[in-house]
Design brief:
The protein has 459 residues and is an alpha+beta fold. The protein has four domains: 3-74; 77-227, Immunoglobulin-like; 234-309, Zincin-like (2-Layer Sandwich); 331-456, no CATH class. The chain has helices at 3-18, 20-26, 29-32, 36-39, 51-74, 172-175, 259-276, 320-330, 339-357, 362-376, 389-409, 416-426, 432-443, 452-456, and strands at residues 77-85, 92-100, 107-111, 117-121, 126-129, 132-135, 141-149, 152-155, 158-163, 167-171, 178-182, 188-196, 202-204, 209-210, 213-216, 229-233, 235-242, 245-252, 283-289, 297-300, 303-307, 332-334, 428-430. The strands form five sheets. It has a seven-stranded mixed β-sheet with strand order 4-7-2-1-12-15-14, with no helix packed on it. A hairpin with a 2-residue loop joins strand 20 and strand 21. Helix 1 (3-18) runs antiparallel to helix 5. The longest helix has 24 residues, at 51-74. The radius of gyration is 27 Å and the shape is globular. The protein binds zinc ion. Zinc ion (ZN) binds at residues 323, 327, 343, 346.
């Protein structure tokens, strides 16, 4: 229990011993302000000397106690502001985290990537233990700052994080190290993200924007840290609410990014994705940039990156954009052998959604599956730490087989959509056992297409 809440409950306990007048004065005015019914009894205070009346009043006092406790707990906030300064002539961004409030966390550990986070500085004590920075914020305003090296190669000369003279693209969860916050449970941070940028630059991040700041919300954490894809520079942004999803496409000005094509494509396809996964994020940022960025798609929380040269539909008829969007909507990750599940759902639905939206006729869909089936033969076993290429084709084929089997045994009352929806609702890490259990729940019996022996043997 929060100590301050305990304090207010003690105030309620005191009332029963020493009288309501003390009670009223013992509750802070700002708490009273929300409960005018407490102020009114004052003229009739004498009746409180009557024990029966006091008993009658007790439920009211209890209510006030609970209400006050809730109010007090809700008031335990401090502000956390991340300011990211980016200058094209500096390879690293300067990041500052500023905490302000009457109460601050007693300790914050930053789990850094030493190759990308460096030059930590604070007026408060900081202790460096290997890759961990232990910061002890003090006073009612505390700051810590560090450099973040933006450039990062994903493969030779291909970047998944880059600063150029005109723009920079990076991910929030790389920009800000993972944080472990020590504070009383009721103390919560209200996080905002802001940028200090060269003249004419603006920022895109997967959060609601209020003026120059982004409001970072990721409920469930004591201190939210910015996550997802971000783009800064001279940007062209297009945005549209598609089937209730605020969809924003951002790319550097002058890049051959397909902003309008992407929005049109999603107008056709996103409603079909939402039918499968109705709980998908209400806001999705699509960031696009050209060379020397990695020539593919990469998903992140509420956001994705797609190389500006990627077609919306590839020659094998799958869609990189839809594949990444399925990742965003499902929000699952595989255990050490189950990346195939994550990639399989994304790949299968990148075809299936196009079929449902009318983007592809039945014949072309079947031909695409046949080609995928041939490719899948090159994967002797789906269980790999990271799934790609033939392995992902094999995974998509296995899920397609599971879909047909579920439809058959349930006489079309259930489909793979129900499995996807249940896995997405649970979120987090998935395993083969979890997939099998979920499929069994949906089908009402074991789904043979998902048996380990089948998935581990050559096709
Ligand atoms: Zn993928």
């Amino acid at each position: 229990m929060d100590p301050s809440a305990r304090q207010l409950c003690h105030a309620c306990a005191d009332v029963r011993e020493i009288g309501t007048a003390d009670f009223i004065s013992s509750v802070p005015n700002h708490v009273l302000a929300g409960y005018p019914f407490v102020m009114r009894p004052a003229p009739g205070l004498t009746e409180f000397r009557n024990a029966r009346a006091l008993r009658r009043l007790f439920p009211l006092l209890l209510m006030l106690c609970v209400a006050s406790t809730t109010q007090a707990a809700a008031e335990q906030y401090y502000d956390a502001t991340f300011t990211v300064e980016i200058r094209p002539d500096q390879p690293a961004a300067r990041v500052e985290l500023k905490l302000t409030g009457t109460r601050l966390p007693s300790r914050i550990e930053l789990h850094t990537d030493p190759g990308r986070h460096r030059a930590f500085a604070s007026r408060d004590p900081i202790k460096i233990v290997k890759d961990e920075i232990v910061w002890t914020p003090s006073g009612d305003g505390a700051r810590i700052s560090y450099d973040f090296v933006i450039d990062h190669e994903r493969s030779s000369k291909r970047f998944d994080s880059l600063l150029t003279k005109e723009w920079a693209v990076f991910r929030g969860e790389r920009l800000v190290p993972r944080l472990t916050v020590t504070s009383r449970p009721s103390l919560k941070g209200r996080t905002t993200l802001q940028f200090a940028l060269p003249k004419g630059w603006s920022a895109a991040a997967p959060y609601p924007q209020e003026g120059a700041s982004f409001k970072v919300t990721d409920t469930g954490r004591r201190l939210d840290r910015p996550e997802g894809w971000m783009l800064v520079g001279k940007l062209g942004k297009r945005s549209e609410i598609i089937d209730g999803v605020q969809t924003i496409v951002a790319a550097p000005e002058g890049e051959s990014a397909r902003r309008q094509d992407i929005l049109a494509f999603l107008n056709w396809n996103l409603p079909h994705l939402k039918e499968v996964l109705p709980a998908m994020p209400k806001r999705v940022l699509i960031v696009s940039a050209g060379d020397p960025m990695w020539r593919g798609g990469l998903s992140g929380p509420n956001s994705l990156f797609i190389h500006a040269d990627r077609p919306l539909i590839s020659e094998n008829r799958t869609s990189t954009l839809l594949h990444e969007l399925v990742h965003v909507a499902m929000g699952i990750r595989g255990d050490e052998e189950s990346d195939w599940i994550v990639e399989g759902f994304a790949e299968y639905y990148s075809l299936e959604l196009l079929r449902r939206s009318g983007g592809m006729g039945r014949q072309r869909f079947d031909a695409a599956l046949e080609r995928m089936q041939e490719w899948a033969k090159r994967s002797p076993n789906v269980f790999k730490r990271e799934s790609s290429g033939a392995n992902t084709a094999r995974a998509a084929i296995a899920l397609r087989a599971a879909d047909l089997e579920i439809r058959k045994v349930t006489e079309n009352r259930a489909t793979l959509d129900d499995v996807a929806r249940k896995l997405a609702a649970r979120g987090g890490e998935v395993s083969l056992e979890m997939l099998q259990t979920t499929a069994r729940e949906v089908a009402g019996r074991e789904v043979q297409a998902l048996e380990r022996e089948r998935l581990a043997a050559p096709l």
